[in-house]
Amino acid sequence: MLSSHIPATQVLAHWAATVPNQWGESTLRTAEHSLEDTIAAMVAGAGDPVCASVRAGLRATGPVPVVGSSIGTCAAFSALANGTAAHARELDEMFLVAGGHFGCAVIPAILAQAHEMDATLDAVLDALIVGSEVMARVGMAMDRSHAEKGWHGTQTIGVIAAAVACGRLLGLDAARMTHALSLAVSMAAGPKVQFGTDTKPVHAGLAAQGGVLAASLAASGVTGSDKALEGPHGFGALYAGDSAADWRSVAAVNDGPLAIDSHGLSFKLYPNCASTHRCLDALQALATEHRFGMEDVERVDTLVGRVNLVNLKYPEPKNPREAMFSMPYAVATMLRYGTVTLADFTPKAVQDDVTRRLMPRVEMRLASTRVETATQLLPHTTAVTLKDGRHLERVVHHAKGSFLNPFSALERQVKFEQCTKGILPEERLAPLRDNLARPQGVKVRQLLALLQFEAQIDDGARFGRLPGRAIYP
Fold first, then answer.
1. φ/ψ bin of 90: left (φ > 0), alpha (ψ from -120 to 50), beta (otherwise)
2. pLDDT digits (tens, 9 = 90+) for 236-254
3. Is 406 exposed, middle or buried (0-12, 13-18, 19+ CB in 10 A)?
4. Of 65, 101, 273, 446, which has the fewest CB atoms closer than 10 Å, so is most exposed?
5. How far is CA 308 from CA 48, 99, 156, 326, 364, in A?
6. Reported pTM
7. What confidence tier does 212 reach under pLDDT thresholds 50, 70, 90?
């Protein structure tokens, strides 16, 4: 069957509505890690000024908690606020095969919907798994040209996944699930022009909010086109970029392993755009192996893919948001401190004279003219030229935290603590960890109650580091 003749909308909706809630242990463990990682990112982001502004702008109270506030709101607005918080510090995972961030766009929607229903985390994990597969299948159909065109898949595809996940929680049948998916297509937006601004994290919140609304409207009888994905003026035709959407990935939804089992999620070690992470890992490894410091470096050349060039648009960032999407800033920070942390994305850190003097030594260019696909990403290369004439090079295909280069148990714990310590009230940290470590039977209302607190708002100074030095002085 030609891709254009595949009834992608109905096929995907039918699968999401009817697939049995019978997931393997490894699938559930990945889902639990995603839930833990997203909640940690929400807590880290709760004190960000943009999150405070979003909370202030909601102006509606209700029973559903908002992370970082003692005042709740409605389910849709809770999803908006919590999704924004999850994405605000750029520490939330990537779903590379889907072309965006998964957890920040989908999990806040699921939690808000589940709170309304008084559901357990068992139901949340089921909806999470279903939503992840929908996001992956649409992401594979759109492939890399969607992102290269300038669309932010976290919102454009994330809202579709969030709607289906919420529909799964609501128990929508295949017909109403089709309408939930269709309604979400009409909410898909998110241009990459917003990268480096406050609106970029709001994209995740809008995806989560749209998911709650689309599922709720479909449950109430609102209908949409049953060809919203594949129709002549549907999602694929309008958003695909230079290559046509290939809906064969959706037609094969009943075949083979789930995407989170075969491709996995990529959990982030550094709080900036994932497009820098393979180059940062390579630089750290080279410096450790060859024992050089920042003053020894003549230049650093980084070779990345086309999508990464689109994402990393600030060679000379003026503020922390722009710095999150700057290869020169990321590399200069790694050269100076031997790592990149939340402490490096404050106004003071971004304007630091030593870091700024290192940035002109960093160049970024296209790694290859070969075509990169959603399922076959190209490696990134970091080449270091030292002042003594040595030329060192490292190629990295899988960043630390990714499916084929996972965190250790200690690294996972350290990240969780980095996100939550000094922000979440100390007495809530242990109960939160216990609920996430043993989620079976835990009520969502019990979990979210632990996340209701008044977050202190600052520019990230709470993450301040001790005076640093080069990797090897």
1. left
2. 999 997 888 999 999 999 9
3. middle
4. 446
5. 25, 12, 18, 10, 10
6. 0.95
7. very high
